[in-house]
Design brief:
alpha/beta
């Protein structure tokens, strides 16, 4: 199985996504995926196009996005689903709003999971240089990591969304009893992330059988 991981690192948000991809890589290595890691400056249109010619089984985007495209290093245009000619296999996009484009072009992907609205992360200024230690960001990164992790161990696209739902509910339960003044903001944004998750293509398809 081939995994293409796309993770630029040029601002605070992409730096957080970049670092938390290490948890995804651990499972990918354990499940013996052949990994192509388009990290930092490698997250560009030319490198991605070359990777997609190899027809990877799973592509994971950790990038900025909008209703039309995904952006790579330094926010340069990276991927436009409407312009893409061949059919993709499994895709997870931790990117704002691109779920709308994949829903519109479902024939171009076997199975997709992503967000139809902005993807939110609450971050602490004290941890911008050490994202993995940021307690405010942890709920957002764990719940969103739950999707590719679930797909890589045999869950369907719908099953992966349910894993994210369970993880979100567990975090909400913890945060609702927290005395941290930011806890209610975290709960609100976690719920918004969950509500904006969409599946395109075959919702019952499995990456790993």
């Amino acid at each position: 199985m081939r995994l293409t991981l796309v993770r630029p690192k040029h601002d605070d948000v992409t730096s957080y996504l970049f670092e938390w991809c290490n948890e995804i890589l651990k499972i990918a290595n354990r499940k013996n995926f052949k990994i192509s890691d388009l990290n930092g400056e490698k997250a560009n249109k030319e490198r991605l196009a070359a990777e997609l010619k190899n027809n990877p089984d799973f592509v994971v985007f950790n990038c900025h996005g909008d209703e039309n495209r995904i952006y790579g290093h330094d926010d340069a245009p990276l991927f436009d689903i409407a312009e893409h000619k061949s059919r993709l296999n499994f895709v997870y996009a931790r990117s704002c709003c691109v779920g709308s484009a994949f829903k519109k072009h479902q024939n171009k992907v076997k199975s997709f999971v992503g967000y139809s609205l902005p993807f939110f992360i609450v971050m602490s200024n004290h941890f911008v240089s050490t994202p993995l230690k940021d307690p405010l960001a942890k709920p957002f990164m764990e719940t969103s990591n739950a999707i590719p992790e679930a797909l890589m161990v045999g869950n369907s696209a719908n099953g992966a969304v349910e894993k994210a739902r369970t993880a979100t509910e567990e975090w909400v339960e913890k945060l609702e009893t927290s005395s941290d003044p930011s806890a209610m903001q975290q709960v609100c944004f976690l719920q918004m992330n969950l509500d904006s998750l969409v599946v395109a293509g075959d919702a019952e398809a499995k990456l790993v059988c």
